[in-house]
Amino acid sequence: MSATTSVSNEPMNSSSFELRNPATGVTSELPVRSGTIGPQVLDIAHLARDQGVFTFDPGYSVTASCDSKITYIDGDAGVLLYRGYPVDQLAEKSSFMEVAYLLILGELPTAPQLQAFSDSITRHTMINESLLRFFNGFYHNAHPMAMVSAVVASMSAFYHDSMDIYNPRHREIFSHRIIAKLPTIAAAAHKHALGQPFIYPRNDLNYCSNLLNMFFAVPCESYEINPVAAKALDLLFVLHADHEQNASTSTVRLAGSTGANPYAAISAGVAALWGPAHGGANEAVLAMLEQIGTVENIPKYLAMAKDKSSHFRLMGFGHRVYKNFDPRAKIIRETCHEVLAKLGRQDSPLFELALRLEEIALKDEYFVSRKLYPNVDFYSGIIYSALGIPRSMFTVMFAIARTVGWVAHWLEMISDPAMRIGRPRQLYTGPQQRNYVPIALRKR
Ligand code: CMC
């Protein structure tokens, strides 16, 4: 704490810390709250009332913004659990639809429950024809994340009067609609960029097969969906489905906490995901690998990544929470081997380069001492590329999967009777109060 305030090192008892301000002599107790697993948290809700100070934590590195039952990360051990289930078990045994059910409803479904859930999602895949015409307003080279964010935001105009956020049935319809329509919107953005006709969703296909069909089918010839591609996409979606209070999820929660239309809140999440420090890294990794080009160039680019005067960072490396291997990156790396082999692309030079880059970086003192490991975005683009998905669509793929997490978190927040608007404070460092000077009297 500051020079005038101190926190004793020892907890006063197992459930609170004593905080004493030496300047005023005022003491107060800060309750320590325990979750089911993970570090305890200091409850500072009454700190300003009792001590007249706020906390300062730019980037929210040590701030728990809410309690949540959805996803748990142990960044030191490299563990990720969805509703308690390890992500590697889900990746091996489950499916994206089952994981969506789990994240949103809290338990693994029975077979009839999963069927009913998937059927409902399938029946919501079409989008209003007027919404489809929005794409004509975008230039052919508009970035798909901009199109997807804008079109998702405009869904709030279609479903505003029929959306009462306090009505559980309305919330359920919203959640099925947005999960169902994201692939359709993404495919429309892709087709718009190509100048090809939009392909309508097909209800006889599962979630990922339908997505591939909408992306790659054309009206003039039949398109055969490759089951290897559909399975690989499903796995990537399982791994990207949720990641607790990351920047885009926190954005959805913050926007949603005002009572805003949830489609608008999801659109804000898409916008937050786009940045290269977050989901946009998958696109940036491929650009970086192409820029590096050959193994011989790796040392030069590693030196640039370590040089603080350069803006270059090793994209797909490092994570705010993981200080060990990102468990998702490990699974995706293994899947790369399998998928590339099955698609006859085992000689992918970019994958070879990525493997070598990882190997060299993980022996480098800079990356070792900072615990910078490959994250989920390091290898995902290699699989997307092998499936024929263009680089500019990679983050859209991430957004489709993460919509499930955003929905789960929005639902958890909105159905909590204790929900309050999210409203951080600041340490003001601007001018003190001063008087207005008429323009004729101002000197510079
Ligand atoms: N390349 C080079 N140096 C790095 C990198 C990197 N990729 N990541 C972190 N560092 C350095 C950073 O310069 C700092 O060094 P120093 O202590 O000397 O100042 C130290 O490591 C700690 O980094 P930080 O910026 O304080 O860490 P953060 O938690 O604020 O940032 C991060 C996390 C993911 C934004 C960052 O690691 C990064 O920019 N990585 C590259 C982009 C990326 O791959 N993003 C995807 C994240 S995972 C998927 C997702 O979130 O959607």
Set down the secondary structure blueprint.
Elements: E1 6-7, E2 16-20, E3 27-33, E4 41-42, H1 47-51, E5 71-74, E6 79-82, E7 85-86, H2 87-93, H3 96-105, H4 111-122, H5 129-133, H6 144-158, H7 168-194, H8 207-216, H9 227-240, H10 247-256, H11 262-273, H12 281-292, H13 298-306, H14 327-342, H15 349-361, H16 365-369, H17 377-386, H18 394-414
Antiparallel strand pairs: 1-2, 2-3, 3-4, 5-6, 6-7
The protein binds carboxymethyl coenzyme *A.
Carboxymethyl coenzyme *A (CMC) is lined by residues 59, 246, 277-279, 281, 305, 313-320, 370, 372, 375-377.
Task: Explain this structure.
- The protein has about 450 residues and is mainly α.
- About 50% of the residues lie in helices and about 5% in strands.
- It contains 18 helices and seven strands.
- The chain has helices at about 45-50, 85-95, 95-105, 110-120, 130-135, 145-160, 170-195, 205-215, 225-240, 245-255, 260-275, 280-290, 300-305, 325-340, 350-360, 365-370, 375-385, 395-415; strands at about 5, 15-20, 25-35, 40, 70-75, 80, 85.
- Strands 1-2-3-4 form a four-stranded antiparallel β-sheet.
- Strand 1 and strand 2 form a beta hairpin.
- Helix 7 packs antiparallel against helix 18.
- It is globular.
- Carboxymethyl coenzyme *A (CMC) binds next to loops.
- The site of carboxymethyl coenzyme *A has 20 residues, from loops.
